[in-house]
Task: inverse folding
């Protein structure tokens, strides 16, 4: 009974679009032609009805076979073993299910920055979705709106924030920003985002002027695609040159400045320590995103699952806490919530979904996570998100 209650929504989750067979990646010009064993259409139709639902490892390998190898490598890349460590760290925590609780009705509805969301899941900002499919960020925005979750639009998006907002007027969009050395560029972007209806600013502070990725010689990573939020005045910007222009002299005082530029709530992303989190809140931040950029920046970095507790303790209820890095299953989401996160953010799986199944693929990833969380909540005796508490997890010895 509990399982059917939790899983009841799953049956209509994965309807493929009629034209879904036209799966492409944006890089269809340069997509690898190796035939996949079955189509994305089959993949999404046959997944999700019962356990096991979409296997994200399988989705990743389908994305790998569809994308230009250089683009796939950009998406999957990490610094040392830090991306792998993020994944492994969630496994270190084990769930302690509660029994004999009434779980006839299970709800994943929760709140982020005070607004209701269908699930405590947020699309993390990732750059340049038009490298993955032609509709790029417009498809992501529509998928997020359909799934009822927030989409954090990267400042390095290949679509203007105004167009993204228009494509999904009912969607909830937060604008991610980097501080450019010329602060005026960032400020202008945030003003445009507010005018376009974005509901929060996510300031990423873990990338001080040193791009962690190198493109192949003679090849521009963004392949001539525009960066209308990050470099609005350049017709053919090179994303890595622009990233080298992110401010290296960033300090907590910049948070005060950002506060002065916008009335929107401010989330600081890229925090891994409690002392930093407190200083962000003292400098005007409303929420903290515990993140190591998907393990892409610092080799040997603490995994986010292990950094979370320190931040939760230090923040002590003063604001929302989000966490990302290696969130792949409902169990990961539940563990993050039990450790004190308000919601999780998901990066690479959305890009794999877009690559394999366009808008429906990204939607399927989101719904998969939500349905998996719902099913697991029933199995752990948790009717709603407010019942999640720290006793639900234990660190394995
Ligand atoms: C291809 C790619 C591009 C990214 N671009 C950005 C970005 O533009 N801004 C940002 O704040 N974080 C960026 N990130 C980091 C994500 O927001 C997020 O922290 C990370 O992907 C979470 O880990 P996961 O991919 O394991 O879910 C990027 C990550 C990837 C994989």
Result:
């Amino acid at each position: 009974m509990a399982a059917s209650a939790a899983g009841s929504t799953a049956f209509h989750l994965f309807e493929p679009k009629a034209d879904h067979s036209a799966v492409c990646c944006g890089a269809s010009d340069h997509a690898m032609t190796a035939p996949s064993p079955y189509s994305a259409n089959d993949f999404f139709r046959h997944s999700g009805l019962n356990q096991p639902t979409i296997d994200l490892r399988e989705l990743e390998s389908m994305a790998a076979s569809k994308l230009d190898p250089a683009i796939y490598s950009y998406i999957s890349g990490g610094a040392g073993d830090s991306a792998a460590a993020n994944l492994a760290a969630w496994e270190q925590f084990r769930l302690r299910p509660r029994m004999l609780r009434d779980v006839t009705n299970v709800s994943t509805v929760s709140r982020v920055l005070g607004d209701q969301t269908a699930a405590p899941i947020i699309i993390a900002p990732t750059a340049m979705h038009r490298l993955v499919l032609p509709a790029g960020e417009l498809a992501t925005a529509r998928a997020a709106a359909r799934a009822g979750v927030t989409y954090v639009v990267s400042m390095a998006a290949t679509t203007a924030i105004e167009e993204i907002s228009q494509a999904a007027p009912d969607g909830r969009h937060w604008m991610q920003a980097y501080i450019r050395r010329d602060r005026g560029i960032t400020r202008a972007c945030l003003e445009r985002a507010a005018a376009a209806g974005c509901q929060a600013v996510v300031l990423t502070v873990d990338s001080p002027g040193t791009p962690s990725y190198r493109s192949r010689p003679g090849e521009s990573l963004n392949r001539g695609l525009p960066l209308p939020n990050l470099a609005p005045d350049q017709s053919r910007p090179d994303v890595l040159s622009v990233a080298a222009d992110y401010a290296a002299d960033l300090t907590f005082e910049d948070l005060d400045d950002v506060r002065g530029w916008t009335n929107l709530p401010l989330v600081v992303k890229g925090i891994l320590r409690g002392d930093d989190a407190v200083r962000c809140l003292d400098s005007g931040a409303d929420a903290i995103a515990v993140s190591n950029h998907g393990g892409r920046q610092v080799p040997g970095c603490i995994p986010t699952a292990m950094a979370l507790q320190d931040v939760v303790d230090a923040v002590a209820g003063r604001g929302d806490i989000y966490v990302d890095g290696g969130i792949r299953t409902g169990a990961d989401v539940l563990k993050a919530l039990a450790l004190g996160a308000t919601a999780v953010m998901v990066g690479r799986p959305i890009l794999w979904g877009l690559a394999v199944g366009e808008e429906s693929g990204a939607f399927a990833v989101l719904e998969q996570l939500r349905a998996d969380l719902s099913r697991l909540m029933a199995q752990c005796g948790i009717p709603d998100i407010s019942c999640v508490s720290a006793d639900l997890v234990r660190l394995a010895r």
